[in-house]
Amino acid sequence: MNKFYGTGVAMVTPFDGSGQVDYNALKKLIDYLIEGGIDYLVSLGTTGESATLNKDEKKKVWAFTAEVNNGRVPLVAGIGGNNTAEVVEEIKAFDTTGYDAILSASPNYNKPTQQGIYLHYKAIAEAATLPIILYNVPSRTGSNISADTTVKLAKDFKNIIGIKEASGNFDQLNHIMRDKPEEFLMISGDDPISFPMIAMGAVGVISVVGNALPKQFSTMIDLCLEGKFKEAQHGHFDLIEFTRLMFVDGSPAGVKTALKEIGVCDDTVRLPLVQVNEDIKAKIIAETKRIIGA
Known about the structure:
The structure is a single chain. By secondary structure, the protein is of the alpha/beta class. The chain has a single domain (2-231), classed as TIM Barrel (Alpha-Beta Barrel), CATH 3.20.20. It contains 13 helices and 8 strands. The protein has an 8-stranded parallel sheet. Strand 4 (101-105), helix 4 and strand 5 (132-136) form a beta-alpha-beta unit. Helix 3 packs parallel to helix 4 (114-127), helix 6 (147-156) packs parallel to helix 7 (170-179) and helix 12 crosses helix 13 (278-292). This is 4-hydroxy-tetrahydrodipicolinate synthase. Its main location: cytoplasm.
């Protein structure tokens, strides 16, 4: 599972001014990320605004992404939801060509019990032909995948290979790292704390910030994975303000603002998301220019 070590990027979905998927910009983004040194791509995760794409759009984005990537880096598809039966059917119907794994967020809004979360992922694991990466993001879903549930899923299903952990709860992270199977991957789902998570055994990150700064962010992550934490500190500290700005007025609106400044894609998002306010926009542009040396 070394293919999921390092920096994965949860790609934004570029839209044109009318709100339609901009495939030219998507190709530009994919090439920009790969040339920037990222290790793998995630298509249509939360950052990709998957909640506001219809089924046909998702199929087209997944197929186009696989075609443009052309096997250059591993590819992960984000497939999740709060209707287990619907998620299972989507996974069964998914064209796996060019894809290496599925990232599936824990159900949102329903607030299932731990038993409900376990049975949700059991159904997914039994339906999937690709490896599964769990995604725990309580700030968005309204519920938490406990350490015990994560470890039980890891032990019970060999095709559940890792977790993107964005709880920010280090006590929980400690318990997972201590009790998980050796081969089970802990992946940071929270850009600001990827540095300390790698210090405790995480194998990398699935990043939002990496959309705009693939070279800078992946260099810092690589240094951490090499155990060169003192050297990595400079990059980590240098990105703190940029990272904060990415989320202060909504994501992925923040990182799309930076991508527009860089010239990769427009900053259009789909409702109910909106573009960042003018004050934050000015700060993001200033930080982007400072970091890339424009």
